[in-house]
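Reading group handout, session on sequence-to-structure problems. Before we discuss, look at one worked example. The prompt was deliberately terse, the way you'd type it at a terminal:

> structure Multimodular transpeptidase-transglycosylase

The input record follows.
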Amino acid sequence: MELMTDQRFRKTIKYLRALIFFGLAGLALATVLYFSLIGYAKLQGPPPLAVPQSTLFFSDDGTVIGESHSGQKRYWVALKDISPHLINATVSIEDKTFFTHNGFDYKRIAGAAIADLKAMAKVQGASTITQQYARNLYLEHDKTWKRKATEALFTLRLEMNYSKDEILEGYLNTIYYGNGAYGIQAASRYYFGKDAKDLSLAEASMLAGIPKGPSIYSPFASMEKAKQRQRTILNTMKTNGYISELAAQRASIEKPKLVGEHQHSRIGAAPYFQDAVQNALRNSLNFDDRTISLGGLRVYTTLDLDQQEIAEKSIDKMIASDSEIQAGFVAMNPKNGHVVALVGGRNYEESPFNRAVQAVRQPGSTMKPILYYAALENGFTPSSTMKSQLTTFMFDDGQSEYTPHNFNNKYAEDDITMAQALALSDNVYAVKTHLFLGEETLVETAKRFGIKTDMDKVPSLALGTSGVRVIDMANAYSILANGGKKVDPVLIKKVENHKGEVIYEYKAEKAEVLKPELASVMTHMLTGIFDKKLNGYSSVTGSTLIKKMTRPYAAKSGTTETDSWMIGYTPQLVSAVWTGYDKGKPIELTVEKSYAKNIWLDFMEKALDDEPAKKFKAAKGTVAVYVDPASGKLASDGCPVKRMTLFAAGTEPTEYCTDHLDHEEHKEEKPKKEKEKKPWYKRIFGL
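And the output record:
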C-alpha cells in the first residue's frame, strides 16, 4: 500500500515538473514572441494615417462649390473642433479605458471570451478604439486568424508611434455613421446640419450610438432604437463621471431636429470653372489625380458666386434659346488677376468643352489695342494720321498681295488719326501700322500681354487672324487696366492638405511689363468706341451701347466671319466675351452678331451695380489736351468739335487746327438787335 502511494507521488511530481517546464517554456516563448512583435512593430515605424477623403473646392467667400470623392463623404476635422460631448460619449460606449491601455483591454478580452463560451456564440466584442481604427485603416473586415494577427500588429504600431489624441482624432474621422457619412464632421452635417464642434449632448449621444449598427441605430432607420441606444450611452457617460443624472435625463427627452441632407448646397456651381481649377491643380501645381480626388484637399478659389450667377444669366438672357451659338466668358480683377467668373459654354451637361480656356478662336479687332500699344512705344500717338482708303499691299517683288477691307467697304478716303481708327475699327490703318512696325513687333508684344498661343507673322495678324483663348485676352486687357503691371489668370488662391496645412499659396510677381503712361494713353483711346465725337465715315463701334451705360468703360469689339468678341474694363473689373459656332459656321444673322456686346454690357452693369463709377486716372507722365478729332491737332476756337485726349508727355500735338479758320473769317456776323426797353408797367405785369 505504501509502495503504491509512493509511486503515485513520484508520478505526480513528474507531471508537475513537466507542467512547470512546459509552462516556463511556453511563457519564455510567449515572452520572446511578445518582444519580437514589439521589436518588429518598432522597426516597421509609424503606419500612415491617410484615408480617402473628399477634396473640397471653395469660392472666394468660403462657400463650398464642389467636392471630389469616391462615394465616401468624409471631411477631416481636428480633435479640438469636435464636441467634447461626442468624444466623451464615444469613449464611454466604445472603450472606457482608452486613455490608459496600450491598445488592448485584456480584462475586457477575457470577459468577452467567457461570455462567448457561455453562449457558445460571438455575443460580445472586445475591440478597443485603437483596434477598430487599425481595422478601418488597413484591413478587410473578415474574421480570419491572419487578419486578427495583422490587426494586432497595426494596433501596436499605432500605439507606439501616435498619441492618444491623434488616434482618437483619426478614429472619429474614419468610422462610418451611415447614409454615406464617413467621419464625425460628415455625420454631424448630414444628421443635424451643423459642424461637429457644435453638437449638443443629446445630438452627440445619438450619433455615438450609430456606428454599432448604422442600419439599425440611425434615427432615419428607427427613431425608437436610436433613442434606446442613446439612453444606454447617456447611462455609461453618467457612470463614467462625464455627465450628471440631470443632464442625462434632459438629453434623453430632447427631440432632435434632423436634417438628412449632406452639406454644401452650392455644390455643382460653375462647373466649367471647377474643371479649369482641376486642370490647374493637375497641370500647373502638379497634383496627381488620386490626390485631387481622394486627398482631402481644401482648394480655395477666386470665384465670386454673385458675379458668376450674373454672367450665366446674361448669357442665357441674351442668346436665343433655340440658337446654336456658343459662348465663352471670363471676368477678372485686373489688380491681381483673380478670375471671378468663368463660363465655358451654355450647357455643361450637353457639352463640357470649356470654350473659355480651351477653345482657340480668331480675336478679330480685339487684337488692335495690342498693336496700337506697340505703335505708341514706337513713336505713334493718338493723333498720328494715315490715309483710310482701299489699299492693296504688294509683297515679295510683286509675287503676292493682300487687300484688307473695312466693314461694309466704307473708307474715309482721307487721313484719320489713330484714336479715330481704333474707335471706328478701321482695318486699313491697322494693317499699315502693323507693316510699318514690322510683323515681328506685334508677335513679341502679344507675348508681353500674356498671349500664349502662336502668332503668325502675316499682314492679317493686325486684324486678329491668329487664334487666341478667351482667358488670355481677358488677361491681356487686365494688364492695360492696371496700368501695365504683370498679372496672370489666377483660379486658385490657396491649397491645404487634410490636416489644414497650407501646401500651396499664390504669390503674385511684381513686374512692370508695359510703360504706365502708354498703358494709360491706350486705355483712354479705348474709351473712344463710346464717344460720338469720334464719329467719322461711320459711327463709333460702341454706339449701340452708349445709352445703356452708367459709367466710363474702355473696350474693343472684334468680329470675323465666324467669331464675335467684346472685351472691356473699368478700373475694378475686366470681362471678355466670345460668341460663335463650335464648328466655325459663319455668323450671318444680325442679332447673333450683337450677342457678345450685349452680354458684355449686361454683365458689367450688373456686376458693378453696387460699386462706385470710377474714372480712369491718368498716369504720371501724361498730359491731356483738347484736339480736333478729325485732324488730331490742337483744337482752335473755331473747331466745331473738341475732344480731350491723353498723350504721353512730350508727344502731344503742338500745331493748332486750321481747317476751320476760313469758315470763321467769312462767317457773317449778324447785326446785334438793340434790345427795346419796356416801360416799367409792362415789365411788372409781364406785358
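Points for discussion. First: DSSP finds 24 helices and 18 strands in the chain. Second: Residues 622-687 form one domain.
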